[in-house]
């Protein structure tokens, strides 16, 4: 009766216990059988599993425990990540391939490394001596000896249980009883010392998160600095390139294509001649009757005409002087143009032959001071002559000689009346 009451009290106590969330890490060398074990616990068929590359997580409910097991990859290069899970872990499941004697030393070193870690030392550890179904697999005692397990666990104050098992023998409810037993033992130890363990885990987890945050910030800072340095380098490089390209531009001689299209030159000449002819005939037609819209030159011409007509024959003598003055002026203009075009030079090459110039004619200067021109006298003016009109026809230069030298004239002068 007393025992029945005691059992009832114990059951009631357990029933009142809150659900506890427990995290475990499952580690061991690659190919030890971790994934097969995890799957078996979860109730999945454990054979034909691929070795864990990264990590996998399984969740299960065991009595009052909600258990999360991190199945961490055991490859040499991936073992470094194990420590990231130590802080939140309440206990360790270490899987050993008992059939692989050659790797026992490596297994021992790995286990030692795990137990010595400050976030693992003092926590319970379940060692699963797996692959017992395989011929020649080491028994429990041999495994303990090969791993110097007693020494290790004593050194690091870890409560330890070893279970010889075979992960592929069954799964779910039919899972190897040793695995089930080992898991019960681990959870029992955790439950027994849950408060102390929980406090430690909370503390370690907070520290770990702070550390991770700090590492994250440091990483971000490193990335930012690297980016800044790279951008600075790129800016400097761009500036260098910009300067050098400017220097190149400055030093680079301007190359002008010496080949001007002859067709365009001829066309332009013909157009000009045509225009001149028209204007000439119009002048003849509208002698004394100027058109409504006149150009500036034409207006000047007209004014000159009126002026000339009023002076009649008296001015015939002036014509010679005028022609000379005009010739001189045009020559001067030509020189000036030549000089200015030379000063502009380099940039504005004479791509087009100059055909038309501003025909602004200054009032006739009858002063004797007008220099005499060596230009041969033009033909006598026709009856009812107007103000001399100057038409400059482009000189058709040979291709490749579009550049003028200092004295050469780029055009010939032709006077029309
Ligand atoms: P992990 O790398 O530690 O996760 O190892 P796996 O669970 O992937 O198992 C590696 C190989 O061992 C797989 O081919 C499994 O089928 C096999 N294996 C796992 N446990 C046992 C076992 O108990 N007995 C036998 N014979 N093979 C097993």
TrEMBL record:
Q: Binding of GTP: at which residues? A: 28-35, 74, 130-133
**Keyword terms of this UniProt record:** GTP-binding, Magnesium, Metal-binding, Nucleotide-binding
Coiled-coil annotated spans: none
Region entry Disordered: which residue ranges? 207-246, 274-417
Which residue ranges have biased composition labelled Polar residues?
A: 300-314
Biological process GO annotation list? Answer: non-motile cilium assembly; receptor localization to non-motile cilium
Positions that bind Mg(2+): 35, 52
InterPro entries on file: Ciliary_GTPase, P-loop_NTPase, Small_GTP-bd, Small_GTPase_ARF/SAR
rRNA processing among keywords: no
Indicate, by first and last residue, each region the UniProt record lists as having compositional bias (Pro residues): 373-383
A cellular-component GO term for this protein: motile cilium
Bias (Basic and acidic residues) ranges: 207-238, 274-287, 337-347, 394-404
Extract the CDD domains matched here.
Arl2l1_Arl13_like (cd04161)
Annotated SMART domains: ARF (SM00177), SAR (SM00178)
Q: GO MF terms on file?
A: GTP binding; GTPase activity; metal ion binding
Q: What Pfam family does this protein match (any one)?
A: Arf
Give start-end positions of Basic residues composition bias: 348-359
Q: Indicate whether GTP-binding appears among the record's keywords.
A: yes
Q: PANTHER family from the entry? A: ADP-RIBOSYLATION FACTOR-LIKE PROTEIN 13B
Annotated protein name in UniProt = ARF like GTPase 13B
Q: By which gene is this protein encoded?
A: ARL13B
């Amino acid at each position: 009766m007393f025992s029945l009451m005691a059992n009832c009290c114990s059951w009631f106590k357990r029933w009142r216990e809150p659900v506890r969330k427990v995290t475990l890490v499952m580690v061991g060398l690659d190919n030890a059988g971790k994934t097969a074990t995890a799957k078996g616990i979860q109730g999945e068929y454990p054979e034909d599993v691929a070795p864990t590359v990264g990590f996998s997580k399984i969740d299960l409910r065991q009595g009052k425990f909600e258990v999360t097991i991190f199945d961490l990859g055991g490859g040499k290069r991936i073992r470094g990540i194990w420590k990231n899970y130590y802080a939140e872990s309440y206990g360790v499941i270490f899987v050993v391939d008992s059939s692989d004697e050659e790797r026992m030393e490596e297994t021992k070193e790995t286990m030692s490394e795990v137990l010595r870690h400050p976030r693992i030392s003092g926590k319970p550890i379940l060692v699963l001596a797996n692959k017992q179904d395989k011929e020649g697999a080491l028994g429990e005692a041999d495994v303990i000896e090969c791993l110097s397990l007693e020494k290790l666990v004593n050194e690091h104050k870890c409560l330890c249980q070893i279970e010889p098992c075979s992960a592929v023998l069954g799964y779910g409810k039919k899972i190897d009883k040793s695995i089930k037993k080992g898991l019960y033992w681990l959870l029992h130890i955790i439950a027994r010392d849950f408060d102390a363990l929980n406090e430690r885990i909370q503390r370690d987890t907070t520290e770990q998160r702070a550390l991770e945050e700090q590492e994250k910030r440091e990483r971000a800072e490193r990335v930012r600095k690297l980016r800044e340095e790279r951008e600075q380098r790129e800016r400097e490089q761009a500036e260098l390139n910009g300067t050098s390209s400017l220097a190149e531009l400055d030093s680079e001689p301007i190359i002008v294509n010496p080949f001007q299209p002859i067709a365009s030159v001829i066309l332009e000449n013909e157009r000009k001649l045509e225009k001149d002819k028209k204007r000439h005939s119009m002048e003849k037609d509208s002698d004394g009757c100027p058109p409504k819209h006149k150009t500036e030159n034409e207006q000047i011409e007209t004014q000159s005409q009126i002026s000339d007509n009023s002076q009649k024959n008296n001015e015939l003598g002036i014509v010679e002087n005028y022609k000379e003055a005009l010739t001189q002026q045009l020559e001067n203009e030509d020189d000036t143009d030549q000089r200015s075009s030379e000063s502009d030079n380099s940039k504005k090459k004479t791509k087009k032959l100059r055909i038309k110039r501003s025909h602004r004619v200054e009032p006739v200067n009858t002063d004797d001071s007008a220099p005499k021109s060596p230009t041969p006298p033009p033909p006598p003016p026709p009856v009812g002559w107007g103000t001399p009109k100057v038409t400059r026809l482009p000189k058709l230069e040979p291709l490749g000689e579009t550049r003028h030298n200092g004295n050469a004239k780029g055009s010939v002068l032709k006077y029309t009346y």
